[in-house]
Amino acid sequence: MSKVYMLVTVTKRPMKKRMLELYEKNDLKISFGIPANGTASSDMLDYFGLEDTEKLMIVSIATDSVWKKIKDSMENEFRIDAPGRGIAFIVPVSSVGGKKTLEFFTEGQDFRKEEESTMKNTLYELIVAIANHGHSEEVMDAARKKGAGGGTVIHAKGTGLEQAEKFLGFSIVDEKDLIFIVAKTEKKNDIMKSVMEDAGPGSETGAIVFSLPVTDTAGMRFPESEML
């Protein structure tokens, strides 16, 4: 069986082409690039030999076998451990909204589906929706119908999205909105289903969704009727 992870890589913006080529070589075709800025002090930048704080965050979905290959290439070919090259980490995916979406994310990867995973004692989940740019409110409207609170929207640009029509039945643009919603685990499935039905593939919003386990939170407030 294969496990599925969200792979996050943070590197210098000029390294985007080389990093995506490394992904492609290791069978990872779908990714989303997000411009970012580092927060290190000037002394820290000097110590590590960094020239600037303009970064690129690349978010992808990778199986465990693909991650092992990418990690090996990052360390041995890309030398990501050298100062200023960047970092990469993975977070387990607990569920994906629909078989076609899962096939789209893992296209070209050696993948065999296993049972949906849930970490023990996880009270919350991070729902990640990827929608066409400018349609985040449609996603949030659908999520709120099933008890979601607020969300955070990040603009991203996708690569490898020409495969969408093959798996999802329609083409999608590369300008995307990533919407992050923290919700109670017991409401996760209903929220994801609502997004898929009201704003999912085939709609103008074209949202696809997956979720990640959250081990702890601060600042989450719910009505008294929902409190334990």
Describe the structure.
The protein has 7 helices and 9 strands. It has 2 domains: 4-92, 2-Layer Sandwich (Alpha-Beta Plaits); 95-214, Alpha-Beta Plaits. It is globular and about 45 Å long. It is α+β, with helices and mostly antiparallel strands and 228 residues long. Mean pLDDT is 81; it is low at 224-228. Helix 5 crosses helix 7. The protein has helices spanning 16-25, 42-48, 64-76, 99-105, 136-144, 164-168, 185-199; strands at 4-12, 31-37, 54-63, 87-92, 95-96, 124-132, 152-159, 175-184, 208-214.
CATH architecture of the largest domain: 2-Layer Sandwich
CATH topology of the largest domain: Alpha-Beta Plaits
* Backbone shape: globular
- Ranges where pLDDT stays below 50 over 5 or more residues in a row are 224-228
Radius of gyration: 18 Å
What is the count of β-strands?
9
Number of domains: 2
Strand fraction equals 25-35%
Instruction: Give a quick account of the main beta sheet: strands, pairing sense, barrel closure.
Output: 9 strands, antiparallel
